[in-house]
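Reviewers of the previous submission asked for a worked example of the structure-prediction workflow described in the proposal, so we include one complete record here. The input consisted solely of the amino acid sequence. No template or homolog information was supplied to the procedure at any stage.
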Amino acid sequence: MSVLVDLIVMLGMLVVVPAGLQLTGAPELDRIRRLWPLFAVPGAVALWLPRGGPATVLAGCYALGALLLALHAPLRAVRASAAHRTAEIALFTALVTPSVAATALVAERSGHALFGFGLGILALTVPHFHFVGFAAALIAGLVCRVADGPAGTFAASSVPAGTLLVLIGYFVGDWAELAGAVVLTAGMWAVALLTWRTIRGSGRDRTTRMLFAVSSAVLVATMVLALSWALGEATGLPHPTLTWMAATHGLGNALGFALCSVLAWRRLQDRPEQAPPEQPPPDCPRTERPPAAPALTTSVRTNPPLTDLTDLKGRTS
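From that input alone, the workflow returned the following structure tokens.
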């Protein structure tokens, strides 16, 4: 199992996080995104070294990068406008959760239990907070920007709430973790439904539509597995083993959901002509742009949206 988990973590460190940061459309994150390989590469190398000093130092390099990323979260929370509050909560979660994963990585690579958690649980915490933390919260925020309304708000709020409840459940007990899994699953299914019904059709090329379709379908299956595992842990009912969960739930979320979602959203950003003419959200003031304005961000002072693809809302109006 350790080889598979390490490969999944590498995907999160080296691909999903930097690509996801680009999707935010936040210019203040450009610098940390460009510097990210300086932190992620040592962290990836640490995964393959024996536990001990060298692995711990390299994991610490990754933890430093994750900390620098997390420091951007309070600033964005202060600047968030009321109209963008829910989506900003999701982005706040995405910026903070890699630091949780990095903390677990440093402890696991040093060979020391953390808060009473064994090395096996710590090793699984690392991919969990890269994909269910960073990737899921980021995509939920992007979906909320495009498909606003009750469903979009629910998705962008319940994914961070469920992630927090799962983290609390680590310390409180299995029933609290089950509650977190229920909330998180509901939010992820809302993301899948909105992606399938609203966003998937925005990609005019088959590849983009297929990537969105795969990410939506995979979420349904992988979150059923998450629920079954949390329910089994809380009640003692038969449930998948951790090895099985890594090979199904973990791999599915990493490749089928996170990677496919990031690639699909990147294709939409790279091909703005796929989207219909821009129609600003009813709760956001109209901002004038130059005629040829494929820019993905606005000034930080105006609290830039997660992405400039809010023009896809024209399909939902």
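The two ends are 46 Å apart (CA to CA). We consider this example representative of the routine output the project will generate in years two and three.
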